[in-house]
Design brief:
The complex is a heterodimer of chains A (588) and B (170). Chain A is mainly beta and 588 residues long. Chain A has a single domain, classed as Quinoprotein alcohol dehydrogenase-like superfamily (Methanol Dehydrogenase, Chain A, 8 Propeller), CATH 2.140.10. In chain A, 5% of the residues lie in helices and 32% in strands. Chain A is built from three helices and 35 strands. In chain A, the strands form nine sheets. A five-stranded mixed β-sheet of chain A has the order 1-29-30-31-32, with no helix packed on it. In chain A, strands 2-35-34-33 form a four-stranded antiparallel β-sheet, with no helix packed on it. Chain A is globular and about 65 Å long. Chain B has a single domain, classed as Cytochrome Bc1 Complex, Chain D, domain 2 (Orthogonal Bundle). Chain B has six helices and no strands. In chain B, helix 1 crosses helix 5 and helix 3 crosses helix 5. The chains are: A mainly beta (588), B mainly alpha (170). At the A-B interface, helix 3 and strand 26 of A face helix 1 of B.
């Protein structure tokens, strides 16, 4: 009897285990991550693949069927709480989708695990609210309460909180397994980027470029929950690059160079590529004479130990806040008949850059934004702005394009402070060989203010104080566009314009379509080649998060988060728009 | 009872009556004022998020909102601050909060088309006159004229449950 009971119990356990394993998704492994393109039914990496193509290989939704695209389901998320300087959380998440489950975050770092298998309803199975210290973290968030999403690892979820913590979560239940404090809000540091997981390391960086931080990349060993390495984006005393901070007062220690967007990764070179933010104080380059490496740069870094392999600086001694944090898509292409491994970047400074990703040498750069006035162009050999003078400690670029201590108010210069393109991700269609950049078209002025030193350097500025050296000043409307470029030459192939800057980023699909959202709630599909609009839907509240695509039981879906505005100036015609916190999902 | 004595008692009675009547009304006035200040604080902190640019303690700040002056040190009087909250400041990042500003001549005698790119930005939320009164009351009761922010001021603003005020501990 006893024996048979045990046998029965064992059998039912086995049955249960089999059932569970067939219901639950496979573990997320490094091998799966490397082959993300082979799982078009899922969206398992933040940027779709490690190369940040944001390209779905599904084509059920295509130029013929697009007219039948309709809402499949919507679901409301939270994250509206006020905190620090903000009335409400923001919504900039890229959903992760794996075998009929979707994982999203709201601005305050709550993670939602949703069963979306039935195709007409998102069933929120669990919500993990990390209990972010909202006043403390929200007071040192420069630009909204943000969290751009999670990463998968084994049978777990890796997420972050604005107050600087990294979390490991049980994917099935939402239970927090451990948390590790990475960034320190007491120093003005926060985390908003979705983690990059390479093998068993979770890599994040510190935001806080407007608060006098010294930026860094940080690796966590996910097996132990302990720090693996930390690499500062501003080299310390004696390290190469530190000599580019020539003030003689160690201003590099508060020089900014933050990180707040997920890097790209090349397994063959075992290197990740990360955009680095502006130098601080943002608008007073005389405070920090020298090139200020590696602010406004890209760094190539080894994921195992954090060693810097190479760096390339876009705007030395940046006086514009051209914060080059955004993604660096990787492509392999022929340049002058030669096969090259390339890293690309739609830069905030208005140029599209192509570099050799094996060594960081400049390959090509071309203006993608309508108006660019801070420099007259890039040196075709070095990729540096033509006015860049290595003998000068403080760069003028085009005279009057930024504030100086002698003349604090600049002339009107383009692109604006927020850049030709900000964090909103590009997409790349390898079949059409087109890179799609979301843009903000416009100009503004800068108003420099002299900043005191930090208290630990003999001044009055305390940790957590804003450290910007002035501010931007509006100079007319800013509109937006999506621009399709030749990914190697940067040559403009097509443009779609809209009345507002694009704050959502782009999804490209092999249905020869691209999708993008706009702050007036318009969610639009465009012909991938001509960028002619082919479909639209209005969500009734602003979209500033990137769309994704996936399939369930062979049926293709498109999802996008619609959420609150950035705290800033609303265009007059949108003045009565209010906020929401929703996921919209479409299907045929 | 002499008339003097009578008068004495009468005046005591009158005083008692007066105290009895005055105390609750003074109390009510204080309570109403405290409520208005608290209401103003909520507008300063959350609804209009004045603190985004002026900092929670009103000491002024730089950054994406513009170069915002200190409200602790402002030389403007309450009526002038009311006007600035209502109308914004032309040519700066200070937004207007009267929904109908620049649709007619109520603000500095100017309408939108005349101002071009100098038009102030639109506030995050519009404010009714009662709200503008309250937020200005808050500024002139709790912010204006004060020196460096203290730990107590910080916890009064943020509460004690956050680490936000740790930096002000002596």
């Amino acid at each position: 009897m006893k024996m048979s009971f045990m046998t029965g119990s064992l059998a039912s356990s086995l049955l249960l285990a089999t059932t569970l394993s067939s219901v639950h998704a496979a573990d997320m492994t490094f091998e799966r991550a490397l082959k993300a393109d082979a799982e078009p039914q899922n969206w398992i990496l933040h940027h779709q693949n490690y190369a940040a193509h944001r390209y779905s290989r599904l084509n059920e939704i295509n130029q013929t069927t697009i007219k039948n695209l309709r809402v499949a389901w919507t679901v409301a998320l939270g994250g509206f709480q006020s905190g620090g300087r903000y009335e409400s959380g923001n919504l900039e998440v890229t959903p992760i989708v794996e075998d009929g489950m979707m994982y999203v975050t709201d601005g305050w770092g709550s993670v939602y695990g949703m069963d979306i298998k039935n195709g007409r309803k998102a069933d929120i199975k669990w919500k993990m609210d990390p209990g972010t210290d909202r006043a403390w973290a929200g007071d040192v968030a420069c630009c909204g309460v943000n969290n751009r999403g999670v990463a998968l690892w084994k049978d777990k979820i890796v997420s972050v909180g604005l107050d600087g913590r990294l979390f490991l979560i049980n994917k099935a239940t939402g239970e927090m397994i451990w948390e590790r404090k990475v960034a320190e809000p007491a120093l003005g540091e926060t985390i908003t980027a979705a983690p990059l997981v390479v093998r068993d390391k979770a890599i994040v960086g510190s935001a806080g470029g407007e608060f006098g931080i010294r930026g860094y990349l940080d690796g966590t060993d996910l097996n132990t929950g302990k720090a693996a390495w930390r690499t500062f984006t501003i080299p310390g005393k004696g390290e190469p690059g530190n000599e580019t901070w020539k003030d003689g007062k160690d201003h590099w220690m508060h020089g900014g160079a933050s990180v707040w967007v997920t890097p790209t990764y090349d397994a063959a070179l075992d290197t990740f590529y990360v955009g680095v933010g502006n130098a601080g104080p943002d608008y007073d380059p005389e405070f920090r004479p020298g090139d200020n490496k590696w602010a406004a740069s890209v760094l190539a870094i080894a994921p195992e130990d954090g060693k810097i392999r190479w760096g390339f600086q876009y705007t030395p001694n940046d006086p514009y806040d051209y914060d080059e944090i955004s993604e660096h898509p990787l492509i392999d292409a022929k340049v002058n008949g030669q096969d090259r491994k390339l890293v690309t970047h739609g830069a905030r400074n208005g140029f599209y850059y192509v570099l050799d990703r094996t060594n960081g040498t400049f390959v090509n750069g071309k203006q993608y934004i309508d108006k660019l006035t801070w420099t007259t162009g890039l040196d075709p050999k070095t990729g540096l702005p033509l006015e860049y003078d290595p003998k000068k400690d403080v760069q003028d670029y085009v005279m009057g394009s930024h504030g100086t201590r002698a003349k604090p108010l600049s002339n009107v210069k383009c692109p604006t402070t927020t850049g030709g393109k900000n964090w909103e991700p590009a997409a790349f269609n390898p079949d059409l060989n087109l890179m799609y950049l979301p843009t903000a078209e416009g100009c503004n002025m800068l108003e420099m203010q002299i900043h005191a030193d930090f208290a630990d350097q003999g001044g009055t500025v305390k940790p957590r104080d804003r450290f910007t050296g002035g501010s931007g000043k509006a100079a007319g409307d800013v509109t937006g566009a999506i621009k399709a470029l030749d990914p190697v030459t940067g040559e403009l192939k097509a443009t779609a314009r809209w009345n507002y800057p694009n704050w959502s980023g782009i999804l490209a699909t092999s249905g020869n379509l691209i999708f993008a959202g706009w702050i007036d709630g318009e969610f639009k599909a465009y012909d991938g080649k001509t960028l002619q609009e082919v479909w639209s839907f209005n969500t009734g509240c602003g979209i500033k998060a990137p769309p994704v695509s996936y399939s369930i039981n062979g049926k293709q879906y498109i999802s996008v988060a619609a959420g609150p505005f950035f705290l800033g100036t609303k265009p007059p015609e949108l003045k009565n728009y209010t906020t929401c916190s929703m996921i919209y999902t479409f299907t045929l | 009872m002499t008339s003097t004595l009578k008068g004495f008692f009468f005046s005591i009675l009158a005083t008692i009556l007066l105290i009895g009547m005055a105390a609750p009304s003074a109390y009510a006035q204080d309570a109403a004022e405290a409520r208005e200040i608290e209401y103003g604080k909520d507008i300063f902190k959350t609804k209009a998020t004045c603190q985004f640019c002026h900092k929670w303690d009103g000491s002024g700040d730089q950054g994406y909102g513009g170069n915002a002056p200190s409200l602790r040190k402002t030389e403007l009087n309450p009526d002038q601050v009311k006007e600035v909250v209502k109308c914004g400041r032309i040519g700066t990042g200070m937004p207007y909060h009267d929904k109908f500003a620049y649709t007619d001549k109520r603000c500095y005698g100017a309408v939108r088309d005349e101002l071009g790119t100098d038009i102030p930005p639109i506030g995050n939320e519009y404010l009714q006159p009662r709200e503008i009164e309250a937020v200005v009351k808050y500024v002139f009761t709790k912010v204006h004229g004060r020196g460096e922010a203290t730990y107590d001021e910080c916890t009064e603003f943020w509460g004690k449950e956050s680490r936000q005020c740790d930096q002000y501990k002596k």
